[in-house]
Amino acid sequence: MGKRIIHCGEAGAGQAAKICNNMILGISMAAACEAFVLAESSACRIKRCLTWPSTSSGQCWALTTYCPVPGPVPASPANNNYKPGFAAALMLKDLKLAQEAALASGVSTPLGAEAAQLYGLFDKLGHGGDDFSGIIRFLRGHQEKGSN
Fold this sequence. Notes:
- This protein is mainly α.
- It has 6 helices and no strands.
- The chain has helices at residues 13-41, 46-54, 61-64, 88-105, 110-127, 135-140.
- Helix 1 crosses helix 5 and helix 4 (88-105) packs antiparallel against helix 5 (110-127).
- It is globular, with a radius of gyration of 16 Å.
- The two termini are 31 Å apart.
- The model has no long low-confidence stretch (mean pLDDT 87).
């Protein structure tokens, strides 16, 4: 699975680290998708829209490795009609687990909660089997299954 082993603490700490990591990923993918939708509405060229954030303060794994729009990152699921590497239903599961952990710990995670809500809607519309980066289609307003 992974290339590195990181000891996170007592039993169960690794699971906590995983859901925290995936909460960051879910939030950053939703943010990247929102930014691309805004850029598209502003007539930005997609390849240039990847260049500026990926080389400045907006840089994140969701952009540089799993870009949610077809073209700029050849291995991205966006280039394969959002067939999953990591299904939206799995992202939703991890976001829900993160929200349960936050509630149990008395920690406020409003961005995680919003990401969970977005992925929940995406899943309810029949996109749970799509790659989680496909949420860009929901944000563009393409809500039916099979929409690009």
